[in-house]
Structure formats: structure tokens, C-alpha cells
UniProtKB/TrEMBL annotation:
Pfam families (alphabetical): Abhydrolase_6
Keywords, sorted A to Z: Hydrolase
Keyword Kinase: no
Protein name: Alpha/beta hydrolase fold protein
Domain of life where this protein originates: Bacteria
GO molecular function, one term: hydrolase activity
Hydrolase listed as a keyword: yes
Domain AB hydrolase-1: 5-202
Length: 207
């Protein structure tokens, strides 16, 4: 069985038209009708694991990739294979300068809808306009947990084979984030997609 986890400010609709369109889609807290309560990523991974049967393929994009990796590291019986799309080993300080991250979080606190629109445009010119049901407080807390998380120590515990894909035009998690994670995962392969950005990566995948 295949389960997916989307990225921040998006929804399970991102999987339409991708190789994972028919998978079982999970939605992040603060997004849509998510059943999850915790906005702390390690705690959230426990909630995700509680919904999974043993031995699944877990696919995560962006922030969802961090949750997927945590689930595989902390609950290894649940995940037989990992697919991480546009992941990062650490968002603040690796993918983006810390000052940029802090400035964006303040921007979200001042005007959430404007900040989300800016982020979607930064992801890709092809990203759809905001149409998801978002809870501003929970969505921001989730993003704060993601920004401060260093996956290095968790990655070394992952037993499942892992496929990583990143676009060479990704301006969000960036090549540096994916390379950083690739270096610390025991069983990982990495594919860089030419001409793909943070969002269009999803539609240019092939297996």
C-alpha cells in the first residue's frame, strides 16, 4: 500500500496527475479536514504511524517528506520504502538562511493569506492559487516545527530503502537540502530532475 503526505499550504490535490494519484492521501494538521492533532513533527509522526498498516510505501513532499522520514525512523515496522520529494535535512540554515525564515514566519503572523500566496508563487509559477482550507494558527505552528527540525540524527535510524528526487530549479528546499539528507541516509538513491522546481517536480516524476 502507498500513503502520501503533501507539503505546507497545499493539500492532497497536489498528487493529481502524478504517479501517486491513486495512493492513500493523508492531510497535514491545519490543512483541509486533517484528523491529526499535533503540530510538532515528531509527535505528528506518531499519529501518522498509528494510521498505517505495517510495510507501506510512504511518500512525502517537502514538509511531508520530513514527516515521512520521521515515521520511518521512529516506527520502522510501518515503512518498507520511503519516497522523499524535495526534502531537506534542515530547512532553516541549510535550505534557507535563518534570517529569511524568521522574516517569513513574521510575515505569516502579520498577514497569513498574503504570506501563503507569496509562498505558493515562490514555489512555482505553475502552482495553483490558494484553494485549500487552512487553519492559520495550526498551519504556522506546523511550519515553525519544520523550520527548526534537523533530521540528521533521525536519518541514520532509517532502515527502509529511500528514493529522493529534487528539481534543479527548486528555490524552496533547494538542492542543498536534498543532498544533505542523501548523505546521511543509509540506503538512499538520489535523482535530480533538470528544469523542475519545487512544485513541478511532482508532475515530472516517472518510475
Amino acid at each position: 500500500m502507498i500513503f502520501t503526505l503533501h507539503g505546507w499550504s497545499f493539500s492532497s490535490s497536489v498528487w493529481e496527475g502524478t504517479p501517486f494519484s491513486s495512493a492513500n492521501h493523508l492531510e497535514l494538521p491545519g490543512h483541509g479536514e486533517s484528523p491529526f492533532l499535533s503540530t510538532d513533527l515528531p509527535e505528528l509522526s506518531a499519529e501518522v504511524a498509528s494510521l498505517l498498516p505495517n510495510g507501506v510505501t510512504l511518500v512525502g513532499w517537502s514538509l511531508g517528506a520530513s514527516v515521512a522520514l520521521l515515521t520511518a525512523a521512529l516506527y520502522p515496522q510501518k515503512v518498507a520504502r520511503l519516497v522523499l520529494l524535495a526534502p531537506t535535512v534542515k530547512f532553516s540554515g541549510v535550505s534557507q538562511p535563518e534570517v529569511v525564515v524568521k522574516r517569513f514566519l513574521k510575515r505569516l503572523r502579520r498577514n497569513f493569506s498574503e504570506g501563503v500566496s507569496f509562498f505558493r508563487e515562490f514555489c512555482s509559477e505553475e502552482a495553483p492559487p490558494v484553494g485549500e482550507k487552512l487553519n492559520p494558527e495550526r498551519a504556522v505552528r506546523l511550519l515553525e516545527s519544520f523550520c527548526g527540525l534537523d533530521l540528521t540524527r533521525y536519518a541514520s535510524k532509517v532502515k527502509a530503502p529511500c528514493f529522493i528526487a529534487v528539481g534543479d530549479e527548486d528555490r524552496v528546499t533547494c538542492l542543498e537540502g536534498a543532498y544533505g539528507l542523501f548523505r546521511v541516509l543509509p540506503k538512499a538513491t538520489l535523482r535530480v530532475l533538470p528544469g523542475a522546481d519545487h512544485y513541478t517536480l511532482l508532475r515530472r516524476l516517472s518510475f
